[in-house]
Amino acid sequence: MPAEEKYAAELAYLASVDKDPRPFAWRLSPRMIRTFILGAGPGDSFDRPIAQKFFGDASLVERAIVTLASDRGLLLIGDPGTGKSWLAELLAAATSGNSTHVVQGTAGTTEDHIKYSWNVAMVIAGGQSRESMIPSPIMTAMQRGEMGRFEELTRCGSDVQDALISILSEKYITIPELRGDESVVYAKPGFNMIATANSRDRGVNELSTALKRRFNFVTIPIVTNKKSEKEIVLFRTRELMARHTISVDVPPTMLDILLQTFADLREATANTASEDQRLESSLSTAEQIGVLEDALLHSNFFGDKALQPGTLARSLVGTLVRRVPEDVSILNKFWHASATETEGVKKRKKGEEAATSAAPKSDKSPEWEAFVAGGKQALTSFK
Ligand SMILES: Nc1ncnc2c1ncn2[C@@H]1O[C@H](COP(=O)(O)OP(=O)(O)OP(=O)(O)O)[C@@H](O)[C@H]1O
Ligand SMILES: [Mg+2]
User: Fold this and answer.
1) 83 alpha carbon to ligand 1 midpoint, in Å?
2) Which of 136, 178, 309, 358 has the smallest CB count inside 10 Å?
3) Which pLDDT score is estimated for 360?
């Protein structure tokens, strides 16, 4: 469900109390868009809760909003799973009330995908006309003065990038097959582009300087702060549970085990020199959400009322193993180390936390033991 539908009531409410001027035909003022995305602050007095939807720097979100009101497109750059597409969707929903004018960039994306194509049957029957033309999502966004989205911009070839340059600078698309007024589609004010690019893809298809100039770049950092990460995971989990009407309980210890395991895996990854000793997975927040989703759905369909450590471990293994046997062997090593080096882990944790706090029970708790055992068990299935 697109964000504008999921949050329809919230968006309508914010529009109804919005007193600030709105650029173009935007649904909300820039301030309200910020509130919609980052949630209501303590100084706001709204009659209903406005939840935080994107977790990140306010200045980053503000810069994105300002860009959308300017002549330049917005390019969100970051590692996989940092929430680029999610932020793009929220921005489009809040400005245009429509986040679905999306083109997915791939090596196979052609100019047609971003301009227009033809309904062949209609062309044969009645010739080329506006009726037999199929506008691309971007052309539709232009006609309606809404946000067009372009996912994974860096993945497509230079001809597509060149076509985008003209869309972003001239703000019209010509249709040479048609005559007169029919032969050009102008963008209504309010049209702009929100593109995303994966920083790991960069260099595969370096953007041309001409295209770069037409975008403001906003870099989305990886969330490394455990508290924010926990909030993101929780936020997403609650949404998922509502969507599936899942009533599985997620004990706080389970969440801690998940977050800690990812932190440990990231640390282990950072400490290995060779590329083939690293999991293919980016170990992003999105991957954590994926693991928890999988575990929750599994519990909901086949299991208990509360999330069990073994289920979580199996989901983790299932989600992170992409290459057999490489990933299996990396996880095996990790898991055996975490079982035998409990003392080391403990020491490190003690150093991190206040010395006075009760010794972290994590590594010795029955949940941890069940989790580790479940993981080892799951790994034996890849033979
Ligand atoms: N900072 C964040 N705030 C809120 N949710 C986040 C954040 N980072 C990640 N997520 C969640 O992670 C999920 C995946 O994020 P998303 O698909 O937007 O990542 P992406 O950066 O587009 O990744 P990719 O480069 O692989 O396309 C989203 O559903 C989102 O809910
Ligand atoms: Mg994405």
Assistant:
1) 3
2) 358
3) 42
Token pair recorded at residue 373:
């055992």
Nearest CA to ligand 1 atom 8: 83
Of 335, 356, 334, whose CA–CA distance to 271 is shortest? 334
What was the pLDDT predicted at 4? 98
Does residue 78's CB lie within 6 angstroms of at least one atom of ligand 1? yes
pLDDT in tens, 291-308: 999 999 999 889 878 899
236 lines ligand 1 (CB under 6 A): yes
pTM over 0.90: no
Q: Would the CB of 214 count as within 6 Å of ligand 1? A: no
Burial class (CB in 10 A: 0-12, 13-18, 19+), 331: buried
Q: For the chain, how are helix, strand and coil distributed in percent, rounded to 5?
A: 50, 10, 35
Beta strands 102-104 and 147-151 are: parallel
Q: Which residues have a beta carbon within 5 Å of ligand 2, which is an ion? A: 85
Q: Is the CB of 91 under 6 A from ligand 1?
A: no
Give pLDDT tens digits for 6-37.
999 999 999 999 999 999 999 999 999 999 99
Residue type, 58: A
Residues 6+ apart with CB under 8 A from 374: 309, 310, 311, 312, 313, 314
